Amino acid sequence: MRQIDALKSPRFTQISTFARLPLCQKLDEGEAVFLGVPFDDATTYRPGARFGPTGIRQGSRLLRPYNQFLDVYPFDSLNVCDMGDVNIIPGYIEDTMKIIEEEIVKIRGVPFIAGGDHSITLPILRAMYKKHGKINLVHLDSHYDFWDSYWGKKYTHGTWLRRALEEGILNEVVQMGIRGSLYSRDDVEDSKKLGVKSFTIRDLKYRLKEVLKELPSGKTYVSIDIDVVDPAFAPGTGTPEVGGLTSFEILEIIRSFDFSIIGFDVVEVSPPYDVSEITSMLAANIIYEGLSVLAKHR
Ligand SMILES: [Mn+2]
């Protein structure tokens, strides 16, 4: 009779950590760590991204140790563990940003962060700057996110990139996947004024190889708004835009990354708007590919 080793079989009901990995025991554990930032008070449309870390952990249960496309065992080779969630303060954006920055500075491993809305990327970048000096940013999103303010307020999920540029913490910035209706033609002009290399969804769909040649080398932070993916493949998000990447396309783009990843986030996953965990599973797989790229290139 065949015996089943309960400890070796996948425990699909255990949902407490990313990919069923161990919880980190110390701040300096792991060459890469998973970290949740469950903050969504800076959203302008649908909320719910505060449940992103939980959803992504749940969507990660089926991840297996070996990545056949990059030929790496990311969890083993990076000794990945789950650091838990940052203790944010609901309703207090600036206090929460301070906490996020302080917490991330303390962590030794490369952080792979599950949002949360996109406002969390600003304090993460501040922490990266403290650790590494000026860094490059690769930003996948359907939105520019460099608007100056919303309702006269400087900190929202659509203004973090403008703030980071003003603070002088970024070197090269490449964003891709931009689409959807805009407030005005000025939005397009602003990317040139701000020195951001912006590629639209058409650039990605019609001439991806050329675009990928424009990516920076050296220390680079990757920020992925799940809404860069088409709502057909990622419905659980706060500000969906139709006509986006497929799930296959985004995984292939990440697999092609050929730079040194110093941090990585996937934001704007909103499980209350998700269907059959489709968005959470994709986000978990995006993080898996990011970990695999780090494992391959270190
Ligand atoms: Mn977006």
UniProtKB/TrEMBL annotation:
Highest classification ranks of the organism: Archaea, Thermoproteota, Thermoprotei, Sulfolobales, Sulfolobaceae
Pfam families given in the database record: Arginase
Molecular-function GO terms, alphabetical: agmatinase activity; metal ion binding
Domain of life of the organism encoding this protein: Archaea
CDD domains, per database record: Agmatinase_PAH
Protein name as it appears in the record: Agmatinase
InterPro entries reported in the protein's UniProt record: Agmatinase-rel (IPR005925), Ureohydrolase (IPR006035), Ureohydrolase_dom_sf (IPR023696), Ureohydrolase_Mn_BS (IPR020855)
Enzyme Commission identifier(s): 3.5.3.11
Family named by the database record: Belongs to the arginase family. Agmatinase subfamily.
Cofactor(s) named in the record: Mn(2+)
Residues noted as binding Mn(2+) in the record, renumbered to the chain: H118, D141, H143, D145, D225, D227
BP terms from Gene Ontology: putrescine biosynthetic process from arginine, via agmatine
Keywords: Hydrolase, Manganese, Metal-binding
Cofactor: binding details: Binds 2 manganese ions per subunit.
